[in-house]
Amino acid sequence: MATWKIDPSHSEITFKVKHLVISTVSGKFTEFEGSLDAEKEDFSDAKIQFSAKIDSITTGSEQRDGHLKSPDFFDAAGHPEMTFSSSSLKHISGSDYELTGDLTIRGTTKPVKLKVEFGGTQDDFYGNTVAGFELTGKINRQEFGLTWSAVTEAGGVVVSDEVKLAVNVELIKQK
Q1: Which of 2, 66, 145, 151 is spaced 20 to 30 Å from 78 by Cα?
Q2: Contact 39, 1 (CB under 8 A)
Q3: Whole-model pTM?
Q4: Cα–Cα distance between 166 and 13 in angstroms, integer?
């Protein structure tokens, strides 16, 4: 069994959500960790664990970040982490996989499916074997208890329910 750990300096956990239905706001989590355990070289038997610190959320606006950390959204004080635990990583074809698992946000756990593109493995300058993955998907924030909502005077929605996820990770094989 090989264990791989996320290299945070070569990884990013980002999201996008529509604002006023006409523009997109991007954000990311800057503190996270994760691991992958697999016996097979194609990772098809991988078990993946991941967590991100809610207090590390950043969108480029201190006021918006504070609102996202508040009980209106993530409730960072009551739920300091979001987590993911995989149930399967299915090889589709070529470098494409489908990752299924349980995502927990704000104390609510729901199954999610993410598209995965495996970038391959390589040895780095320090003699480590590294692997790269790009994951994408969508969730409905309402399903995870992030229910704050507002409507403009013209009747427009302030924040979309759909959140697009984009995760790029580089993992280091543990010796």
Answers
A1: 151
A2: yes
A3: 0.90
A4: 6
pLDDT digits (tens, 9 = 90+) for 55-78: 999 999 999 899 999 998 899 999
Other Cβ atoms closer than 10 A to 88: 15
| CA–CA distance, 130 with 163 (Å, rounded to integer) | 29
Query: Is pLDDT of 19 > 90?
Result: no
Q: List the one residue out of 113, 109, 111, 110 whose CA is nearest residue 90.
A: 113
Kindly give, in sequence order, each residue whose CB lies less than 8 Å from that of residue 127, ignoring residues fewer than 6 positions away. none
